[in-house]
Design goal:
Layout (H helix, E strand, L loop, with lengths): L15 H16 L10 H7 L20 H26 L4 E5 L6 H4 L7 E6 L1 H14 L6 E6 L6 H8 L8 E5 L8 H13 L6 E7 L5 H4 L2 H10 L3 H4 L8 H7 L2 E6 L1 H8 L14 E8 L2
Parallel strand pairs: 1-2, 1-4, 2-3, 4-5
Antiparallel strand pairs: 5-7, 6-7
Bound molecules: S-adenosylmethionine.
Length: 298
């Protein structure tokens, strides 16, 4: 794959830049000898965006390794998250699900890199500038998705995304694997509630839903921790300013109330299981993170 530099209108502003941060982390993870996940496209997105000049995309460009709070520890967190949600989506496919909806897809390349059943469809919902940058970069690379891939530019804070999804060929009568990876942290709590309700309303029996949240408001000591400081000072991403300040809803409880079976774990559960990934530390910016996996059994 050989990339030149495409026009990058707007992905490098606001929350769109977080998609590039995750891409850089996935690129670095890809180069690790003990990679938790591999994404050969990730580094191309980073190199195509002028806002990411000087960001690392290979492990040797992170001299402190896992001790680096940003590209080491947080980066490894994103690698772990990618792997765990990859596995979850492929298990959903093995269970017979053929529709996948990525909410806040960002620079997710699962449609290109995972071994989906041939009759699957992957719907990617994100802001128009993010999807436009992604498409331009993929076109330059000549990348071909392994399955039907349907990008949908929409604002997930507005209810119109649901009609756009249906108009794009999504069939609510068929079970779906939904994923909100790195999305709800940025949405007002009322918007998260509406997304949860919409997912339920569009989920046939057997659908799955995996998502990430922060369970509790973080203390001042956590907010001052090196992960947040490094992201702000080194790459200009003020995560604490981007996270929505509302008290978070209990979406797992809402889902349970609407006929979903849910299981919630910490990232550290998976670091422990896989023998790689971040471990708890004092004043930990990852300690409030939870990953919920739900199955709809109305
Ligand atoms: N899921 C991707 C991943 O893990 O690589 C991207 C995660 S990135 C941290 C967050 C993404 O959510 C960004 O691509 C951003 O544009 C998208 N996003 C945030 N708020 C959104 C909204 N209201 N509507 C659509 N997309 C949104």
């Amino acid at each position: 794959m050989a990339a030149t530099v495409p026009d990058t209108t707007d992905i490098d502003g606001g929350v769109g830049l977080t998609a590039l941060m995750v891409a850089a982390a996935r690129a670095i993870e890809t180069g690790r000898p003990d990679a938790l996940a591999r994404d050969e496209y990730a580094g191309h997105f980073v190199r195509a965006a002028p806002a990411c000049a000087g960001w690392p995309i290979r492990p040797e460009e992170v001299p402190e390794g896992e001790a680096d709070p940003l590209w080491g520890r947080l980066g490894r967190y994103f690698g772990l998250r990618t792997r765990v949600f990859d596995d979850h989506l492929l298990e959903s496919a093995e269970a017979g699900i053929r529709q996948v909806v990525l909410l806040g897809a960002g620079l997710d390349t699962r449609a290109f890199r995972l071994p989906w059943p041939h009759d699957s469809a992957v719907f990617e919902i994100d802001q128009e500038p993010v999807l436009a940058f992604k498409q331009r970069t993929l076109d330059i690379l000549g990348a071909t998705p392994r399955v039907r891939r349907v990008p949908i530019a929409a604002d997930l804070c507005l209810d119109t995304w649901q009609d756009a999804l249906t108009a794009a060929g999504f069939d609510p009568a068929r079970p779906t694997a939904w994923l909100a990876e790195g999305l709800f942290l940025y949405l007002p709590s009322a918007a998260e509630r509406r997304v949860i309700a919409a997912v339920t309303a569009h989920s046939a029996a057997g659908s799955t839903f995996a998502y990430e949240v922060k369970r509790i408001a973080e203390t001042a000591a956590v907010r001052n921790s090196p992960v947040y400081t490094a992201a702000r000072e080194r790459i200009g991403i003020d995560l604490l300013a981007l996270f929505d300040p509302d008290p978070r809803p209990d979406s797992a409880a809402d889902l349970t109330h609407h006929g979903w079976q849910t299981q919630t774990c910490t990232p550290f559960d998976h670091s422990h299981r896989l023998g790689r990934g971040p471990r708890p530390e004092p004043h930990d910016a990852l300690a409030a993170n939870r990953w919920t996996f739900a199955v709809h059994r109305p």
